[in-house]
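=== RUN LOG ===
request id: a7f3
mode: sequence -> structure
chains: 1
length: 166
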Amino acid sequence: MPMTAWTILPFQAGDAPAVRRLIESVWHEHFQHHPDPFVRDFISARLSDVDSADTAYGDRALFLCARTESEIVGTGAIKRLDDRECEMVRMFVAPAHRGHGIGRAIADELISFAGMAGYVRIRLSSNSSLTASHRLYERLGFQPAPSWDPGGETYSRYYSRPISNP
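=== RESULT ===
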């Protein structure tokens, strides 16, 4: 299958419905048959940040979208935690567009942004079954970290890495 051209741009007003559809479809691809309803339904109730991304990702934060001519095919964001630490969140790539470097390109831009914004550490969490994502994060220099969510280790893996500021 030929690769479709894509570009990475900041989230724009009006992107929320398409971003929500992408995130929900990727989640359901992996977890629609999960035996625990908490996991199956986890994402649907937790997308208010997408619906209000213009304010939720304002202060030293960034939400990126990978776009083709006709659709949003990948997402990723940096969320401010405090003056020194941020979190990489909302990393999703549509199935038909995986393996073409979109996730890596988004992550690279987010890590670069975090350094320029003055953060010294970046963290992320990922569902334990998303092993391809874990390989990417490890190639990007993330190391396993203890859970920061009480009981989160039941379903998630936690990572962090230092950031070199420019």
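=== NOTES ===
The mean pLDDT is 91.
The first helix runs from residue 16 to 31.
=== END ===
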